Recover the amino acids of this structure.
């Protein structure tokens, strides 16, 4: 089944690793033109070099950019337009969270989390929206966390910011429907990442394999599927929501948490 994105243009923020990188790979495999950004120039170049061995370089564009800097974001979007002349889809892929309870959370931590989870999305939408409005398949898809519905006391600032992003996504879906721009989200649970790999390398029982160790983590966290999610599994959900296959879907959320969510 085709996702109907051949030669369409998508921007993926945070596209040089993890879920973002898998989504870039998936879009390229479907024939889309993909622009992705990140703050780390080495990781960006490494992702470009790896993917260019498999896919058409003419459909690839990377740009070093801090999505919290509105001017850099505007320059990024203009550069994408200069390269591909259009923007059809935007996927906002926010960063990691702050581990701290309320009493260990400083004022700046609150500010930083709200900026990262909310203003990174606001900046990208402000810059890309004029072009998205011209597309016949326009979509905005936000990578969010289950924390938006299932707050954790040890990640209080991140939970609050994630709930705010969920609210923003719903509001935008209602507001942008008049412009034929769909807005949706995914909520991820525990997904394999460099952070989990580092914890695995620091494990006390070195005899445990990655599979055994992560299975134990999933059991402790109460994940019914008994394992951590894979980045590509989140990417498939994002691809569906961003693509014309979900043309009658806006203001929706797909839970990609392995059954961890118990909310109705």
């Amino acid at each position: 089944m085709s996702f109907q994105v051949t030669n369409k243009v998508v921007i993926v923020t945070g596209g040089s690793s993890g879920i973002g990188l898998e989504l870039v790979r998936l879009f390229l495999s479907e024939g889309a033109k993909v622009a992705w950004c990140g703050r780390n120039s080495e990781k960006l170049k490494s992702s470009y070099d790896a993917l260019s061995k498999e896919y058409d370089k003419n459909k690839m564009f990377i740009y070093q950019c801090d999505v919290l800097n509105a001017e850099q974001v505007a320059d990024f979007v203009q550069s994408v337009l200069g390269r591909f002349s259009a923007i059809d889809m935007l996927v906002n892929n926010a960063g990691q969270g702050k581990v701290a309870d309320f009493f260990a959370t400083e004022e700046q931590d609150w500010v930083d989390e709200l900026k990262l989870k909310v203003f990174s999305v606001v900046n990208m939408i402000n810059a890309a929206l004029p072009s998205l409005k011209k597309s016949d398949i326009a979509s905005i898809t936000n990578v969010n966390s289950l924390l938006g519905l299932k707050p954790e006391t040890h990640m209080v600032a991140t939970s609050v910011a994630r709930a705010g992003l969920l609210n923003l996504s719903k509001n935008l879906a209602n507001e942008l429907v008049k412009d034929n721009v769909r807005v949706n989200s995914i909520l991820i649970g525990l997904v394999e990442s460099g952070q989990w790999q580092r914890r695995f390398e620091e494990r006390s029982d070195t005899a445990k394999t990655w599979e055994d160790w992560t299975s134990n983590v999933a059991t402790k966290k109460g994940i019914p599927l008994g394992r951590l999610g894979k980045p590509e599994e989140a990417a498939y959900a994002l691809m569906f929501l961003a693509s014309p296959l979900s043309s009658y879907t806006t203001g929706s959320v797909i839970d990609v948490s392995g059954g961890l969510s118990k909310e109705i």
Summary: The chain has eight helices and seven strands. The mean pLDDT is 94.
